[in-house]
Amino acid sequence: MIKSIRKATDEEWDSIVDTAGSAIYFQTREWFDIWADYAGFESDARLICFDDGKKVLLPLTHVNLLKGLIKVNFLAPKGMGGFVTNDELIADEKRELFDILRKIKILYCAVNPYDTLTNEFGGFNGEDFTQVLDLAQGFEPIFKNWSKGHYSAAKKGMREGINVELAVTESDWKSYFAIYQDTLARWGNKATNTLKWHLFEIMYARNSRKIKLWLAKYQGQVISGALCFYYNKHVAYWHSATSQRFFKKLNASHVLQYRIIKDACENGFLLYDFLPSGGIEGVIDFKNGFSPQRIPVHVYMSPFMKTADAMRKRLRTNAIYKSLMKNTGF
Questions:
Q1: Of the N and C termini of the chain, which has fewer Cβ atoms inside 10 Å?
Q2: Do 266 and 151 share a structural domain?
């Protein structure tokens, strides 16, 4: 039986997540803090203690809308989340945990697909998927398994002189953001959300070993980039952009993936996660060319959240909606 539920300290949060093998970057305090700084999300991580001494962390955050009249909860802002524990729970303890989720009135959660505990929750009402490479086999077998087009594009791009390096300076990050703005112009109304420079500025200022911005350069000019997060043995490919001028002329995206995946293999990471693609077929097809495994991502939306999400999809281009959700990434 649950003995207590209280706010987790920073030390408890870090300790549990750092020692849980299935935890990913989107469940770390660092990720929650970034979104607190960027969009005013308020972290509400809870430590759930059972009477037999077992402990479970629930990393939770919320954003206040309409001057606090509406509180929208997320298990991870712009990522995948869920419960985190190092203890083996019995069925009754799991049921008690899942009842906590059901009692949150406005909640959205895309579940960490590597978390066996939260994925046992029986109330899922949505489904997505991610595309993942198993890096344990080493880079060469992975590269040889790419589609013929992707394999040739990477080789050709390197022959044409595209090189890849990590962003180091703020100027590097600003160059990437300029390309991102170029990408948004190319996507037009198909873009699902718009991120402001302040988010990238926050990430750069953290100087975190968990955050790496990779840049592809051609003749000294940044033409493409990819933002990845590193945690445990998991690499998450979260954001990318390519200059419109070079989008179809060079193969920068393929060279980027070659370099990032090779680096992950060489540094002992076991999973390269392309992450869900929002149902955008062109993005899904691009990722498919690397021959990843498709893994289900269970989604839970509380009844009120499900209704709100349907409205969000209809209002995404509405000026009032954009004003209310400014800088949140939603």
A1: N
A2: yes
